Amino acid sequence: MDKVKRALQIFNLLMENGQIDRETESELFVEYMNPDILEILNEFEDELNFKILRINNSLYMIPDYDNYVLGFKNKDMREWIGSSARASDVYLSYYVVSFLLFLFFGGKNKNPKQREFLRVSTFIDELDKRIASVLDSGKEGVLMEEKYSMNFVKIAQSWDSRRSYEEKKLTTKHGFVLRVCKFLEQEKMIRLVENEKEIRTTTKLDDLMVYYYLNDSRVKEINNIFVPGGDGNAAN
Q: How confident is the model at residue 24, as a pLDDT?
């Protein structure tokens, strides 16, 4: 097959699924390592602002931060949350995702993953504690807002205003967390199991976090946000 057509096959499948696994797409996975095809895909990356990562036995497509075609936009999350979603709800969803990643991947050793599963109820309890500390932090909260260009107080208020009932409505903490988790599940980052009472990560999320996103500086930045007191030495 023509190498350009083969490169397009790989590109199209990555566009559709976000990943190619050696186990299910062995032929395309091997073809990716052909220098001629790799050169074509590298040109695609440069022109379309994305990266293809080979991690273990999978290929992943990662849009660049400023990619407004393949990348994720605020309006995408607003639409996912619901038509009545406010800007503070969108940023709260980002905070929920970030804190979830911290609880799974905030370890201090060479493998930062520190748990295999997380109960949804436990996650909500941990969010309650963390957000209460933001509301009580006073000056520290303002300093965090200035440093990270994120309105932590508005985010905390958006969370705190929700009821604690275990319902799937967006007006409850449980419902909001489930909506965010279902978005991550759609992106093949997590799995909701045990009747949506437990969160487990996927191989895709494990690969991307451990081998790509969590370099030393990113681990330190995450810990600075979520470890009480901003312990800059929390990750070694």
A: 93
Q: What is the largest CA-CA distance in the chain?
A: 64
Closest CA to 199 of 130, 131, 122, 105: 122
63: part of which helix (H) or strand (E)? strand 58-63
Give which of 33, 31, 22 is closest to 2, Cα–Cα: 31
Separation CA 151–CA 158 (nearest Å): 11
Tokens, residue 116: 């295999």
Query: 80-101 in b/e burial notation, b at 16+ Cβ within 10 A?
Result: ebeeebeebbbbbbebbbebbb
Q: Which residue has the tokens 């681990």?
A: 219
pLDDT, tens digit, 9 for 90 and up, residues 12-68: 999 888 899 999 999 999 999 999 999 999 999 988 888 999 999 999 998 876 654
* Average pLDDT of the residues in 124-144: 79
**Burial class (CB within 10 angstroms; exposed 0-12, middle 13-18, buried 19+) of 174:** buried
| Other beta carbons within 10 Å of 228 | 10
> What values do phi and psi take at 197, rounded to 5?
-105, -5
pTM score > 0.70 for this model? yes
